[in-house]
Amino acid sequence: FEIHFYFSPTGCVTCLDHDEHYILTFPNGYGSILTVPWIELGGECSISCSKTGYNASIVFHTKPFYGGKKHRITAEIFSPNDKKPFCSIEGEWNGVMYAKYSTGENTVFIDTKKMPTIKKKVRKLEDQDDFESRCLWKDVTYNLKIRDIDAATAAKH
């Protein structure tokens, strides 16, 4: 598959084997520094495929100030032209998510900790245009890796 990101908060994932194009939106990122610092995702997102008509609504829940868990997610998956979901998902977006189907079946939807890591395929820097992401940010990335924040900040400017 291929992944394309646009400057707007919309992306397109193409499943080449099935000639399906999924348009998706992204959650917001939030940072908290009041107690132990953490970054979390929050907000509503969607995924839809014009070819099949399937779509999903996803909510990334932010952690309440007192109690509650981080990284919670809920989602509903819809068949074409249906107003009721055939599957509801809940769990942690960076852990285990559980599915409950309209048939009553409950199962593990996905366990992200058991997923294999797939190395990205990226063109060599010398083959990239000046404004392609890795080429444009190479000095920032390098300086962050060597923990030179001042040089990274200068490169960012």
UniProtKB/TrEMBL annotation:
Transmembrane region(s): none
Record-level GO cellular component terms: cytosol; Golgi apparatus; membrane
InterPro entries for the chain: OSBP_sf, Oxysterol-bd
GO molecular function per UniProt: sterol binding
Xref: Pfam families: Oxysterol_BP
PANTHER family assigned to the protein according to its UniProt record, in alphabetical order: OXYSTEROL-BINDING PROTEIN-RELATED, OXYSTEROL-BINDING PROTEIN-RELATED PROTEIN 9
Record's protein name: OSBL9 protein
Biological source species: Panurus biarmicus
